[in-house]
Design goal:
Blueprint (H helix, E strand, L loop, with lengths): L1 H9 L4 H23 L9 H13 L4 H29 L3 H18 L2 H14 L2 H24 L7 H14 L3 H73 L5 H26 L3 E2 H10 L5 E6 L5 E2 L1 H20 L5 E9 L2 E11 L8 H12 L3 E6 L3 E10 L4
Parallel strand pairs: 2-4
Antiparallel strand pairs: 1-3, 4-5, 5-7, 6-7
Length: about 400
């Protein structure tokens, strides 16, 4: 069972591939059905068939029906490929107006194919790619256009079809088009579920990274407590012992035994060693940020992360490490929540006496950034320690946050 799930995980496809697969699969099935029925049994009373008939009538005097069928098949193949290409464009572009154009093109292809399945695919993309309110507006427009297309086709049906039957057929087609609403709703549920899973995985990764950082802090605090205990107990007693040994040597004068001098020397050496251990324990309070950052990035399923960490730049006192980690964590959260990024680069380097942390993504860029609570909090944290926050937004893609802290912040 584990091997099965591992294989399914390997076969996960990017969103643009899934978006292209729908039109190509259903368009191919439609073409196979048309070719199987063959000329004479396939109804050509739809936009592509009507256009094919007009073209065939203009270019051929005889054999119009056969040429119409060939143009009909070719038109379906072209529209299917065009719809798949525009589905790719809508899934990949970061420009809103280009996404609107690609969605409008797919809607035109669905109307040309006169296919409810294509309309449902477009409805699903509306839910996945647009805000909910905007998507609902597009859904209403798509339904009205589909009903108008059905009315035109029913009105121009063959004269042999009775009037009552025509409008019964129109009512049935209008009700059938309401299936785009469940398609929109299901896609919206899938999107919400995915966002929830990503948010849960991100929160879990942040908790694990915070636990790693907290563990380092607790170990440092425990070392500090032991150092203080050594200094306050053993150090004081050794100091008193050395004072008494010095006094004993002075009182004995020239008659002092050799063992007494040896004891005084050992006591002084032991006191020096205890002081050395305490001094080293006090200095060894730096927390390594690298492990916490690796744990954080390892738990982000929606981001392809790349770490470039200088070992010296990752060592900081607890309060500096905590501030840097909180700033980097906020930058990662913004890339996931607001930028829609898929790739993230985190750099931690030392430059000219400064610790420089840089977080760059490939999400939606916006040169006119309005700082919210997250960015404002990052700037305040860094400013309190003499640092600075620099923001570089690209267009159309990319946002880079650079956090700079002076070496004296420690």
């Amino acid at each position: 069972m584990r091997q099965l799930f591992a294989g399914l995980k390997i076969l996960q496809l990017p969103p643009w591939a899934i978006a292209m697969a729908g039109p190509l699969m259903f368009g191919s099935l439609d073409l196979v059905a048309v070719l199987t029925e063959g000329f004479g049994r396939t109804s050509l009373h739809n936009p592509i068939g009507e256009l094919g008939y007009v073209i065939a009538k203009r270019v051929a005097d005889t054999g119009v029906n056969a040429l119409t069928f060939d143009l009909y098949v070719a038109g379906k193949a072209i529209v299917t490929c065009a719809c798949a290409a525009m589905a790719y464009g809508a899934s990949r572009t970061v420009w809103p107006h280009r996404r609107f154009l690609c969605l409008a093109g797919q809607l035109a292809c669905a109307l040309a194919m006169d296919s409810l399945v294509f309309h449902m695919l477009v409805a699903a993309q509306l839910a996945l790619l647009l805000p909910t309110r905007t998507g609902l507006r597009w859904l209403a427009v798509m339904y009205l256009l589909g009903v108008a297309a059905d009315a035109a086709l029913v009105a121009t049906a063959q004269a042999s079809v009775e009037h009552a039957l025509r409008w019964s057929m129109f009512a049935y087609l209008s009700l059938e088009r309401l299936l785009i609403c469940p398609a929109f709703y299901i896609a919206d549920l899938v999107l919400r579920e995915r966002r929830s899973r990503v948010a849960l995985a991100t929160a879990h990764a942040q908790v694990l990274a915070t636990q790693t950082l907290l563990g380092e802090t607790l170990r440092g605090a425990e070392r500090m407590r032991i150092a203080r205990d050594l200094h306050d107990t053993l150090g004081h007693h050794l100091t008193a012992l050395n004072l008494h040994l010095d006094l004993a040597v002075r009182q004995a004068g020239s008659n002092a035994p050799a063992a007494l001098g040896t004891a005084r020397g050992l006591g002084q050496d032991l006191l020096a060693q205890v002081r050395g251990v305490v001094t080293h324990a006090r200095r060894d309070q730096a927390i390594d940020l690298e492990e916490a950052l690796r744990v954080l990035c390892a738990g982000l399923p929606a981001l392809q992360t790349e770490l470039d960490i200088d070992a010296d730049a990752a060592q900081h006192p607890p309060h500096v490490a905590h501030a840097l980690f909180c700033c980097i964590q906020e930058a990662v959260t913004n890339a996931l929540r607001h930028a829609g990024a898929t790739k993230l680069t985190i750099q931690l380097q030392s430059s000219a006496g400064m610790t420089v942390a840089r977080v760059a993504d490939n999400g939606r860029g916006n040169p006119l950034i309005v700082e919210g609570n997250g960015l404002r909090g990052m700037r305040e944290r860094l400013t309190d320690m003499g640092g600075a926050l620099l923001i570089a937004a690209g267009r159309p893609t990319g946002l880079a946050l650079e956090m700079r802290l002076p070496g004296g912040a420690a």
